[in-house]
Amino acid sequence: MNANEVIANLASAALGEVVHPNDDVNMSQSSNDVIPTAIHVSAALAVRERLLPALHGLVDSVEGRSKELETVVKTGRTHLMDAMPVTLGQELAAWGSQLRHGRERITASLERIHCLAIGGTAVGTGVNAHPEFGHRVAAILAKRTGIAFQRNENLLESLSSQDAAVELSGQLKVLAVSLMKIANDLRWMNSGPLAGLAEIELPTLQPGSSIMPGKVNPVIPEAVAMVAAQVIGNDTAITVAGQSGNFQLNVMLPVIAYNLLQSLEILTGAVSVLDAKAVQGFTVNQSRMDEALSRNPILVTALNAVIGYELGASIAKRAYREGRPVLAVAEEMTDLSREELERYLDPAALTQGGGHA
What is the per-residue burial (b if ≥16 Cβ within 10 Å, else e) of 196-220? Predict the structure, then answer.
């Protein structure tokens, strides 16, 4: 006995009359329009009630810490090699921008998710359904959830394709890519404590390695990176499933539903834990950053317009080879005074861009 028959029998017993599972319970409906509708409603609720609030919290934390750390100057890095200085606040502000754009992309994709297949019945023509059935169901769902659900203007599209779900999944993938970038930056900055960068220290969440006493691993960024990898994989599965609509029905609705809702669930958890257990609680190793910055030979880039690239390169190479501050070497190899060099090579000033003539 299937679920509809059970419902029909219970209703029959309660009402003292026959309620047919198809003629009554399933009137004006088909799994072909109900399942796509359920996917859209579930995804919209998961985004609005869980993911977006978690993202709001993470953005607030990242931007709050960015302001807190806006004067902390550190060595910038390109190709994982020392580059011109930036502030830790600027670095976090870039993360905040990524996350804000991710949130905007997801929010924009909801316009299509809010369009429902209900009322299309078997093939999208609405056979056996009242013309107003889909509109009325969408209106009831909108009233009960506070989400602007509406019946899709073209129900054949809703049954034969899952482009809106593919679009949302794609935007979740973009967020996953951003989260993996942020997680890896945190891991690199936390690396050490002696042989790595050791610019920050993440909150200690475990006693240490199972074999190496005192070793504390960056488990939260690592977990976030794994979630991101899973979401990227889910998006590939959803993409393949999305193009599997043959004529008037997409037959891969279950895999779309499973992967899309899983992506939403695990992304929400990853965003929340990254916020609470990493971004809010990391501390800054100011002395380590100052030491690395003072010995960064790439600071000589600021002298290019004054002494030329070739002399600058010679200064940088010598400073690196001798393990000395670039300012000291430049003082020996140029006619510039120490006062001039201090002005040109001021790391804080260099984070603001432009020239320093």
Answer: ebbbbbbeeeeeeeeeeeeebbbeb
